[in-house]
Design brief:
The complex is a heterotrimer of chains A (about 200), B (about 450) and C (about 240).
Chain A: H1 4-15, H2 34-44, E1 48-54, H3 57-66, E2 71-74, E3 98-104, E4 107-109, E5 114-118, H4 119-122, H5 127-130, E6 133-139, E7 143-144, H6 147-154, E8 161-165, E9 170-171, E10 179-180, E11 187-195
Parallel strand pairs in A: 1-11, 2-3, 3-6, 4-7, 6-11
Antiparallel strand pairs in A: 4-5, 5-8, 9-10
Chain B: H1 4-11, H2 15-36, H3 42-58, H4 60-73, E1 77-81, H5 84-97, E2 102-105, H6 109-113, H7 116-122, E3 126-129, H8 132-139, H9 156-167, H10 176-193, E4 196-199, E5 203-205, E6 210-215, H11 219-226, E7 229-235, E8 239-240, H12 245-257, E9 265-269, E10 277-283, H13 287-291, H14 307-311, H15 313-316, H16 329-339, H17 356-360, H18 367-380, H19 386-399, H20 402-418, H21 444-454
Parallel strand pairs in B: 1-10, 2-3, 2-4, 4-7, 5-8, 7-10
Antiparallel strand pairs in B: 5-6, 6-9
Chain C: E1 4-6, H1 10-15, H2 17-29, E2 34-35, H3 45-49, H4 57-67, E3 72-75, H5 78-87, H6 94-103, E4 104-106, H7 107-114, E5 127-131, H8 134-139, H9 155-160, E6 167-168, H10 184-187, H11 189-205, E7 210-213, H12 216-228, E8 234-237, H13 238-242
Parallel strand pairs in C: 1-2, 1-3, 3-4, 5-6, 5-7, 7-8
Helix pairs in contact in C: 11-12
Classes of the chains: A alpha/beta (about 200), B alpha/beta (about 450), C alpha/beta (about 240).
Amino acid sequence: MVTSKARILRAVKANQPNFISFVDINIPQSAEDLPNKFALALGNVGGKFVELDHLQEVQSYINENFGQGGRVLSSLAELSKLEGLNVIDTNPHHLANVSLAVLSADIAVAENGACWLPERNILQRVLPFIAQHLIILVSVKAFVATMHQAYETIGQDAYGYGVFVAGPSKTADIEQSLVLGAHGPRSMTVCLINEWSA
Amino acid sequence: MKDHSELSAIFNADEQRVNWHDETLWWIRQKRDKAVNTLPEWELLRENASQIKQHTLSNLSAYLEQFEAKALANGVKVHWAANAAEHNEIVLSILKGNGINRMVKSKSMLTEECHLNTFLENNGIEVIDSDLGERIVQLAKEPPSHIVLPCIHKKKEEIGELFHEHLDTPAGEADPQVLTEAARQDLRNVFLTRRAALTGVNFAVAETGEIMICTNEGNADMGAHLADIHLASMGIEKIIPQRRHLGIFLRLLARSATGQPITTYSSHFRTPRLGQQMHIILVDNGRSQQLGRDHFRNALKCIRCGACMNTCPVYRKSGGHSYQYTISGPIGSILAPNLDMKKHADLPFASTLCGSCTNVCPVKIDIHNQLYQWRQELVGAGYVDAKKKWAMKAMSFLFAHPSLFAWVGKVGRRLMMIGPYLFNNKLNPWYHQREMPRAAKQSFREWYKQRAKNNG
Amino acid sequence: MMTVGLFVPCYVDQFYPKAAIATLELLEKLGVKVNFPERQTCCGQPMANSGFAHLTQACDELFTENFADFDYIICPSGSCALHLKDHLHSSKYPEKAKQIQAKIYELVEFLVDILKVQDLKARFPHKVGLHQSCHGLRGLKLAQMSELVAPAFSKPLQLLHMVEALEMVTLSRKDECCGFGGTFCVTEEAVSVKMGKDRVADHIANGATYITGVDLSCLMHMEGILKRQGSGVQVIHIAEILNAS
């Protein structure tokens, strides 16, 4: 019996045109003023940008802006005062009541406000989606101009999962009225940490 | 069955609503313009994306095999479906094999194309669409009217009524904020209780075997990351060669679609989550046939941004449902006849060939030229009204005979002057809402002859 | 001296001879000697755009015979010129047909690109809206298209700006289709009319008393709507403005 795979591949092979090559383009991008460009772009997609001097200030920032109640969870070992996450025994459903997730991003893209979160930074894939609010910490080294540079940086990284997040979850499906907080976080704050080490 | 023209006439019976629909979509076109004009390299990106897609189509069989090998190595199960029926059976067997009778689904135009929901429901499986717009049309028992904005044809008051009926929102509540919150609460419970989640695929990378999914709501991820089984359905044309090419396509996609610089989430799935099953279903359903059609092959470059719909004045003023195909608007009109020429023979004629679609297309599909070409194919295959055929033959005869043309013109103009009722009547669709042009006393050629005579 | 053949589209010949006369007079004023082959009829577009390109053979042969010998062929219609450029085909004289495709010009294109007109002795003291017909715009690229990220230019405006006392109005949608579309205007009557009404409304809202353009087919469609509405706004082919004094 001929499998569907064989049938499809045979048809594709028979019907595809002669080989067409293409030229990769290189679009030079200015690397100037990236944090400010990022902040602007993030604002346009509904996110908030703040700058903190030290990692230690994150806790007080959370207290001031998100209150004391609610479950706050972080995948950063450095934020030892926050509830940590153990990937082996965490059932993603147990994260349903997380009010705030604090994560770190490897890359922050100035053209669109997107932050790159590979699986190792979030531990549970659902975390940046299921939390009611999201804080993403970045260092000044994280900024790149465009998606081209972002993928250059990612390179051949063997992540199992990775996501660019640009702003809070949103929808405009009802008469094109923008509503923040569709299924995922209602807010996203990106904190630039000037001095990462303690 | 009514055709596009008849359904458009019905849509146009409510002119205020047409204006609202037109202006909403034009606003998105303007947002798109604003976004693309921030990138001086925009046209270069389009050209490059087009070339990458053309290259991929020319080497598709190899890329598909490479993709499958990589995905398998990543621990993903890969299935091949030659048509919609096979696709649906594969989904059903995966669900049944795992004892699942409820599934949550994020946006996938391919599953709409395959009529998966109806099939699964007939087989005792409940499907809930999780994209807000898709959920709304699902509750309304309608198909999406736009590939990116499924319920763009619906007013918030109508959505409020649906939510009042199904989600217990207060009667008369039509605030988008309140309605979205109600859907959020309702669907959160769905995400947490469904063991299987099906998603679409925006791009599949041959080099790494990963798939990439774009959403603004986060619904694809909520479904996939909470479920035991993630099924992803993709057309075989979704392949791109390398991961870094995503950079090009992501820069183009959301800007073209909604004017956003990127969608909120661009999720890359390479391996299943720990303890999770991940299935990718590669679907042909007419795509390999389209690949063999020289004039129409390039339609397979489409990345489903919907920009051609937003810019198309015919789409804006006739509504997505008048196209009667899963994908409406200009791109749908060049994809649909590939699957069923007879059924969709009206669509390539539902255009003025203005060409705006071709200009906004981020992968440079020559949509309006393909519409022209489909017209030739459809006429050649005999899917055209006999009256039209005779009229065209008569016209062609007339234009081949200059003196007959001059004579008919003269008699025709004389008739228009002495008996305007011959033209100004109900049988003349021009006259229904427009006055006829005034017949000139003297045609240009008559004037020219006379001038030559006068000048001796 | 260059030889120039004037191609007057069938419906312009019959319904809008004034536009063809203005074209001829304007070219003559600019020192061009113009010939009008009398056995001409149509470019074949009505059949081809309806899917009957195979029926345009006789029409194409006739066109080729009529116009093969000129250095330039000028047509006061972007749509007809584009159709010939893209689709003219002759079995009898394939080479000649191909040559014609390279030497056919829409009027504005010819004035700007070939004659390089720098000034015109024309006067038209009215507020005018320019309708950018799609085939002239996106096919012949008579102006920059609003969809592209590219420098702005407009050949029709370049010429209209030379006309004394003329005031151009700015439209809210500067290059949207009017909905004529050939047989589309009758087969898709409802959408066609709605598109036309919306275009006309844009011109009126912005104060135009005349709507001009390079294609009378679009103008004829909008004229039909204007007249039905009892509007005093008139349509006028661009040649008539450029030739006005």
